[in-house]
Amino acid sequence: MPSETRSTCPYCGVGCGVIIESDGAQITGVRGDPEHPANFGRLCSKGSTLHLTAAAPITRHDRLLHPMLRARRGDALQRTDWDTALDTTARQFARVIRAHGPDAVGFYVSGQLLTEDYYVFNKLAKGLVGTNNIDTNSRLCMSSAVAGYKLTLGADAPPCSYEDVEQADCLFIVGSNAAWAHPVLFRRIEQAKAMRPDMKIIVCDPRRTDTAGLADLFLPIQPGTDVMLFHGLLHIMLWEGWTQPDWIARHTSGFDALKARVRECTPEAVAQACGIPAADLLTAARWFATSPSTLSLYCQGLNQSASGTAKNAALINLHLATAQIGRAGCGPFSLTGQPNAMGGREVGGLANLLSAHRDLANPQHRAEVAALWGVPSVPDKPGRTAVEMFQAAADGEIRALWIACTNPAQSMPDQATVRRALERAEFVVLQEAFATTATADFADLLLPATSWGEKDGTVTNSERRISRVRPAVPAPGQARHDWAIAVDVARRLERLLPSRAGAVPSLFPYASPESVWLEHRESTRGRDLDITGLGYALLDRRPEQWPMPEGAAAGRARLYEDGVFPTADGRARFADVAWQPLAEPRESRYPFSLTTGRLRDQWHGMSRTGTLGRLFGHVPEPSVQMHPQDMARTGLGEGDLVHLTSRRGSIVVPVQASDELGLGQAFMGMHWGGEFLGGVSSTGHRLAGVNAITTSAFCPSSKQPELKHAAVKIMKA
Ligand code: SF4
């Protein structure tokens, strides 16, 4: 019987509403939801083909439909039953915890989990097991944005809405190829520009991307010079009298120290460091500061950096100095890479956070969460973040890993270390919808999870809007929901580790995703993201932005309109951050700067989009792009196979000329795993993809790795 179900696209942080068409157990079509305020019916190439990639299990061979267990390392995976799989997981984790303590286990989860899934995993790790070793692939995506907001504005809360795009007089798009990474939002930007051609668009990126094609002013800065650029813009604003001293005096602190720092960032010095004309700096500063409203849109170009927090904070400094915040059409607006990186942050599903934007380092916050959960305490020792977690496993300190809904054997930087970690860990359980990801090669146990079109819960997009995700078809095979799998193991662990269980019969009494969500909702009461005025019934009618406390008629589109910030004194804080050089600068042995990034029609490790031929029409095969002059200088021709080599590893790919890049730069899509590069390693595993090359050097504050830059050499193969 044909039916239609409202849900949300599972790909990027735009969070488009979709209507799923289904017939029995088969998803037959998808179209944009015309009533969803994130997209008003639009979908991009990925979203509009969701039904074709979700044709499992009828036409796809790679869905994981049953639990699979290896009798021993090196043996083939064999089908097993759920009780054996759950008992094995609980027994192995309990064994390691009893022998080596709770910090000998780690949970690595995903920004593609729903908020309810995330909540249960976080409570399982921190509440029951007693470790903060839970981190997520959102660490690779948004943690610098989190740290930047908290450092300056006092809370991890993007203050803007998509509707600000239509109201801005100046858009400053920096470190974001929105045309490919957030296509539906970019259509909105294009439309706004067409309606109001006077709107100024500045795009700042080392690559002349499709997004840069819309720019009135393009700033092709050298990789890693963003902080220098932002300080240089502030220097000009101060010199020209374009800052807002009265607003600064009323609503901020710390400006004098920053003023002293940027004094030496003269236009000439900054232009030289960034590799752009000084006149363009002046134009950018004028447009940013003197436009009635300026909105910054930014993403991984700032976040995926060993100085990611400083980059985020230095950009927010500009908004504070010019009072471009708290009004329609202005503010610093970080774009979220994954569909629910925001939801994960809301439940505190990171190694340094706690529920409802509480801080692990704050004793009162730990006590509040312990009381909410009914456990004696939440451990105070910071957990291992993504890179640290795999390093600890490679060093033998973390002995059991539970990985859910992510593929670290492809997506983490420095694959040699990650793969050493997966081989050394005594027990690796992978909870996944797909049986064929690179990480599955290393898992002792596979737990089949439901996927888009089958799941039930909520996600939060970049503009703080919570949307419902609804099931259109039943779970295929024996797949179960992620939250339910975590609950089933947690209840077994409560029996195996009674000293860690709470006073109540179970810390995990949930019977539905809504029952999980209601507990999460209660945890937000009185917090900056208070959603006590929301419920599934209301969200079923319309998505809403947080905060929406009890009694509120609607969520809030814009934050800080009253000029009061969630800091101890109510003032925003200027961040006196220093420019730092790249973690791995170019040098004579590794003379090229490699940047990785999204392609328009692919998603992450391609486990979904890589199954559909039409999505390869845009970019059909892996390649590394170089400037034509660099190719000529090094004797390379179009399509030549090259060794692309960093200090950590090497891959062989064809080379392609691109004048979108500056001299000395190279670019490769982030999606290409080893299966697209061919061959197997000496240990029999698939080769690592592009992340064999990238570095795990990370920002000391956010712990986000510098995926956007590695020094490489490129030699004919
Ligand atoms: Fe999905 Fe993002 Fe495309 Fe919207 S823009 S349809 S959320 S991938």
UniProtKB/TrEMBL annotation:
Its cofactor is [4Fe-4S] cluster; Mo-bis(molybdopterin guanine dinucleotide). Keywords: 4Fe-4S, Iron, Iron-sulfur, Metal-binding, Molybdenum, Nitrate assimilation, Oxidoreductase. One of its GO terms (cellular component) is oxidoreductase complex. The keyword Iron-sulfur applies. One of its GO terms (biological process) is cellular respiration. GO terms for molecular function: 4 iron, 4 sulfur cluster binding; metal ion binding; molybdopterin cofactor binding; oxidoreductase activity. Residues 2-58 form the 4Fe-4S Mo/W bis-MGD-type domain. Belongs to the prokaryotic molybdopterin-containing oxidoreductase family. NasA/NapA/NarB subfamily. This is Molybdopterin-dependent oxidoreductase.
